[in-house]
Amino acid sequence: MKKRHSFFSFLAALLIVGSINLWVGTSHEMVVQADSIDQPTPINQIFPDSALAEVMRYQLGKSSVTDVVSQSELDNVTNVNGVSKEIISIEGVQYLTNLTNLRLGYNNIRDIQPLENLTNLTVLDMIDNELTDISPLSNLTNLTQLSLGDDSISDISPLAGLTNLINLYLTSYDLTDVSALANLTNLKDLWLSSPKLSNVSVLSNFHNLETLQMRSTLVSDITPIANLKKLTLLDVSMNEIKDISSLSELSNLTELTLTDNQISDISALSELTNLNYLYLDVNQISDISALADLSNLEELYVTDQTITNEPLTFQTNIVINNTIKDENGALVTPLDISDNGSYTSPNITWNLPAYTDEVNYTFEQTGSIGNGPFYFTGTVYQPLEEVPATYNVIFDIDGVQNSEEVVVDALLEEPAAPTKEGYTFTGWYDAKTGGEKWDFTTDKMPAKDITLYAQFSINNYQAIFDVDGTTTSQTVNYQSLLTKPTDPTKEGYTFTGWYDAKTGGNKWDFTMDKMPANDITLYAQFSKNPENGGTDTPSNGNKTKPKQPARENGTTITAIEKSTTLPKTGDNGTALLVLAGLLLTGASLLLTKQKKKSI
To answer: Which SMART domains match (predicted)?
Structure first.
């Protein structure tokens, strides 16, 4: 019984687990099938946005947005046009699984997630909405035509895999990088625009391009276009282009627009003989003779040119050359000359009563080139610079002066720093002493003559006193007297002075000699004292041989006896010794005589 009970318990558990798995699987299948409706549903429930519901009502041929529709009816919808309908949400579009053409430009759409699985789409127009994220487009690999524009799209990497695209319209206020388009080599028509876009090197990949319109960017380099030989229409207006030489080999071009750039040289266009329409308005073109042989032209506009000459210094009489040339290279007579100027070919002349910052003249020329008319108009501006007021600046170095003229409000050119022995240059000042230091990076020339004085600070140097290797030092200003140290002592020697060398050299005179512009070392020198305590050994080093005592009558007479020099007054000790010697000598003589008599 227990075994049978266990078996039934196991079977019940298995059924429960199986039921749960079946429910989970069914629920998951419902999620996957969420892009279809299970039963007929009112239009305005499928498409909650009232504007989109009205578009779908019309598309489905219903009389009211409350009419119900089935999934099969939705499956029959392949084309939806909801341009400029004030649509905000496109919820419900995900049920249009067979949709191939969807046009929802000029609305207020922000979220395009419902498009994610509409893989049958070949044409999608979402221009001028409020898009920032276009990642749901990455699955729509069947797209051949895509329009996105006038939004704040900065990341276009979701477009990288849409290699079937033939026509791409892409404009954005925040687009800076278009390298993600590199693999879209099937493109035939491309429109690019962004006020932050400057690098379009990716264009060199698009060899199948037939139409390229790139407007309102920061692009100045159009060399990537040079090899797009299939181009028939090129519009690169409102950019920063100056050099158009890279266009010279685009011989299939029939329409070219270069309006609103910075172009002055159009000689590269002379080879584009298939051109029918050429637009060069709002540039800096003064000579159109390079276009004379474009025999297929039907329309040429070179209007509103602005040519600005290099500035001239103002004079009351101004003469400049006319530089405007027509299709034949002939000078175009000025239409209107400012400030009562006159024209005598090739010169325009002005006689000006007072200063003005500019003169100008306009021109206008019409004619025909090829099969149609041309229009060539513009203005030439001649800037004039007022003669600048100048004043003298004098640079004074201890009375030695140099001067130069400087324009008012101009920065002065700083002279080389002067040098002065024993001093350090501290700067240029507006007074000989004190005053304000001149800052050559910010201070500007006033409307008067000025003098700037070089100021210096005195240097100090080290005086080292060396006594047999033991040193002390003093810090002394340049050209000041040194303080004489206490005379050093040395046993058995007499200090002779301070010298600039250990031996020999020059003796330093502390009352006269002054500190030079460098550190110095003075050495204590000594002379050795005699061993008997007498005077110093003569400087020649020779010793004097002592004299032998004199003898008189067999008696040795010392130097004392022979001396007739009297002792100095007050030398009591020496006098007593002399007296004692005389007494002893006299006594000795008397004794000697008495002995002789007794013999």
So the answer is: LRR_SD22, LRR_TYP
Residue 450 CB contacts under 8 Å (≥ 6 apart), including other chains: 391, 392, 393, 394, 430
Longest Cα pair distance anywhere in the chain, in angstroms?
Answer: 195
**How far out from the chain centre does Cα 39 lie?**
67
Q: What is the pLDDT of residues 420-478, one digit of tens each?
A: 999 999 999 999 999 999 999 999 999 999 999 999 999 999 999 999 999 999 999 99
Q: Which amino acid is at 581?
A: G
23: burial class by Cβ within 10 Å (0-12, 13-18, 19+)? Answer: exposed
What gap in Å lies between CA 70 and CA 33, rounded to an integer?
15
**Domain 390-458, CATH class in plain words:** mainly beta
Burial grade of 411 (CB within 10 A; 0-12, 13-18, 19 or more): middle
Q: Report residue 134: phi and psi, to 5°.
A: -115, 20
CA-wise closest residue to 32 among 111, 115, 113, 117: 117
Across 36-70, b (16+ Cβ under 10 Å) vs e yields ebeeebebbebbebeebbbbbbebeebeebeeebe
Report the C-alpha dihedral over residues 157, 160, 161, 163, rounded to 10 degrees: 150
Contact residues for 220 (Cβ-Cβ < 8 A; gap 6+): 198, 239, 240, 241, 242
C-alpha angle 80/81/87, rounded to 5°? 105
Please, which residues have CB within 8 angstroms of residue 302's CB and are 6 or more apart in sequence? Answer: 280, 281, 283, 285, 288, 374, 375, 376, 377
Fill in the DSSP letter of residue 177.
Answer: -
For 497: left if phi > 0, alpha if psi spans -120 to 50, otherwise beta; the answer is left
Q: Where are the domains of the chain?
A: 390-458, 460-528
Q: Which residue has the tokens 């196991």?
A: 10
Encoded amino acid at 309, one letter: N
pLDDT in tens, 401-435: 999 999 999 999 999 999 999 999 999 999 999 99
**CATH for the stretch 460-528:** 2.60.40.4270
The residue ranges of DSSP E strands in 489-532, in sequence order, are 493-499, 520-528
Q: What are phi and psi of 397, to 5 degrees?
A: -115, 95
Rounded to whole angstroms, how far apart are CA atoms 507 and 527? 14
- How big is the chain, counted in residues? 599
Which 8-state DSSP code applies to residue 298? S
Q: Is the dihedral of CA 216, 217, 221, 225 positive or negative?
A: negative
